[in-house]
Amino acid sequence: MADVEEVEVVVAHNERATLRVGDVFLKIDADQTRTDVEVEAMAMAPIPTPEVLWRKPPVLALAALPGTALGRLGEPSTASPAAWAAAGAATRKLHDAPLPPWPGRSLDEIASRLDGECEWLVTNGVLPTDLVTRNRQVAEAALRPRTPVFAHGDLQVTHVFVDGDEITGVIDWSEAAQGDALYDLATLTLGHEERLGDVVAGYGAHVDLDVIRAWWALRSLLVIRWLVEHDFDPFAPGCEVDVLRSRL
Fold first, then answer.
1. What's the Cα-to-Cα distance from 180 to each of 12, 168, 207, 212, rounded to whole Å?
2. Residue 3's pLDDT band (cuts 50, 70, 90)
């Protein structure tokens, strides 16, 4: 690392930061419980994950994965249908693995947070009332009893790396827990609805598409305030607000 010419800031806000130094990613997190979860989840996961090089709180050093991200929210994905199917297959392998010992959020917790975020969006004039109301109705289908699985918890398209048609690894495991399988699939395909068929084909099990759509609405409603407050733009083309508009 002594010969590295530059340090790249991958993401930075008041909760955490990720830097790239050559082939090493340095993750700095104010909450070490998230890092504890990330390290333990990667050790348990039956799919490729980054190698942990060292950990000196608050810093976690991870080796870079080969390949490139499967896609980006708001941009068309250039990955092949086979690569998306491989992502679905890797997700199924994770979901079939033994559960992590820590629970995820309960349905009551999610519903309560959803109500609070919807109220904030309307009260502050961030989104029209009818857009929020309609998507809150769509989101209701996600709040149903389900059998928990080993869920990644934040399986964004940028967190899945591919080389050609092969999955080389999955990053950012700090939200991993016992959770809803369809939430992972919805997060992976958020803003890439045209790729859902490939993912489901690779997943190889029955998937309730209405619940996937419900999770698209629910996740988008939940994250808009956080994104705005951390200088991200959910109003960018193809991003969270467009996902909500597509449900009308």
1. 28, 24, 12, 11
2. low
Half-sphere exposure of 154 (CA within 13 A, CB side): 14
The string of DSSP codes covering 59-80 is: EEEEEPPSSEES--TTS---S-
- Considering the chain, what is the average pLDDT of its residues? 96
Q: What percent of the chain has pLDDT over 70?
A: 98
Residue 177 in tokens? 């827990």
Q: Give the closest residue to 158 by CA, choosing from 189, 112, 198.
A: 189
Q: Which fold has domain 65-245?
A: Aminoglycoside 3'-phosphotransferase; Chain: A, domain 2 (3.90.1200)
Give the chain's largest Cα–Cα span. 56
Percent of the chain with pLDDT over 90: 94
pTM, entire model? 0.95
Contacts of 109 (CB under 8 A, 6+ apart): none
Which residues, 6+ apart, have CB-to-CB distance to 137 below 8 Å? none
Domain coordinates of the chain in residue numbers? 65-245
Average pLDDT of the residues in 108-137: 97
Q: How far is CA 14 from CA 11, 28, 106, 223, in A?
A: 10, 11, 27, 16
* The pLDDT of residue 14: 84
